[in-house]
């Protein structure tokens, strides 16, 4: 992290507290990234043990969210930060909430993977588009966490721009699933489970975009949550 972004306070303890919060967020982000990877792999391979691990990891994610929130509240109460430090803490509270929701989406994918395990021997071949969609949202989330780690928002619009690709793939997957359900009503239950996975991945992409928007606020002090991609790109050039 560019430590020059954080003010050099008279209290060295204050600097340490801010750095500790930042490190906890990155730890939580790494855990959530692992959850997504394991959940998608469990779906692709039918590995139920891997899916169960993802579900168990959600408790760790929830615990980290609560610990970070509590630490931020204590700093706000005791240090009464201003300017960038205040925006940093507000952003951290929002970002960990986004990450917790991503963890929930990964848990849902793992649950669907368990339901689908053994249902299709050629699952990997049938759902390659779903796996590519997963790769896109993982790239988005990793990029957003990298922006937080470096506190350099130059790459934000590249990350948010990927959401259009995710949405296109999501629409394509829905059309394929509907076709399969129409071809054989016996497919309906299984295809609905797959639809839940696609929807969860689409939401992970949205949460990655939200993280980017929170980070723009942290660095620039500007709320860009409701801007279009084009408006955001113009704003970033200013």
Structural class: mainly alpha
* Total beta strand runs: 0
String of helices and strands:
HHHHHHHH
Mean pLDDT: 91
Number of helices: 8
Helix content: over 70%
Strand content: under 5%
Radius of gyration: 20 Å
Summarize the structure.
With 238 residues, the chain is mainly alpha-helical. The protein is built from 8 helices and no strands.
3D structure, described in words:
The protein has 238 residues and is mainly α. The chain contains eight helices and no strands. It is globular.
Which terms would index this structure?
mainly alpha; single chain; about 85% helix; about 240 residues; 8 helices
Chart the SSEs and their pairings:
Blueprint: H1 12-45, H2 48-79, H3 83-116, H4 123-126, H5 128-150, H6 156-183, H7 188-220, H8 229-237
Helix pairs in contact: 1-2, 1-3, 1-5, 2-3, 3-7, 5-6, 5-7, 6-7
């Amino acid at each position: 992290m560019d430590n020059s972004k954080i003010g050099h306070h008279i209290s060295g303890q204050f600097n340490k507290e801010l750095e500790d919060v930042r490190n906890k967020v990155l730890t939580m982000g790494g855990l959530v990234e692992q959850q997504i990877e394991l959940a998608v792999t469990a779906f692709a391979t039918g590995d139920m043990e891997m899916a169960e691990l993802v579900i168990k990891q959600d408790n760790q994610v929830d615990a980290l969210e609560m610990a970070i929130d509590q630490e931020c509240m204590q700093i706000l109460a005791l240090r009464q930060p201003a300017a960038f430090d205040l925006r940093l803490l507000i952003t951290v509270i929002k970002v960990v909430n986004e990450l917790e929701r991503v963890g929930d989406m990964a848990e849902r994918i793992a649950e669907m993977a368990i339901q689908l395990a053994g249902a299709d021997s050629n699952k990997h071949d049938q759902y390659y588009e779903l796996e590519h969609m997963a790769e896109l949202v993982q790239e988005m989330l990793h990029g957003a966490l990298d922006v937080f780690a470096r506190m350099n928002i130059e790459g934000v619009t590249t990350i948010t721009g990927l959401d259009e690709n995710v949405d296109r793939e999501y629409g394509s997957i829905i059309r394929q699933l509907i076709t399969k359900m129409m071809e054989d009503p016996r497919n309906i239950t299984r295809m609905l489970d797959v639809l839940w996975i696609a929807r969860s991945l689409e939401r992970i992409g949205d949460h990655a975009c939200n993280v980017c928007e929170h980070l723009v606020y942290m660095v620039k002090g500007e709320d860009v949550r409701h801007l279009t991609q084009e408006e955001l790109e113009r704003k970033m050039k200013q």
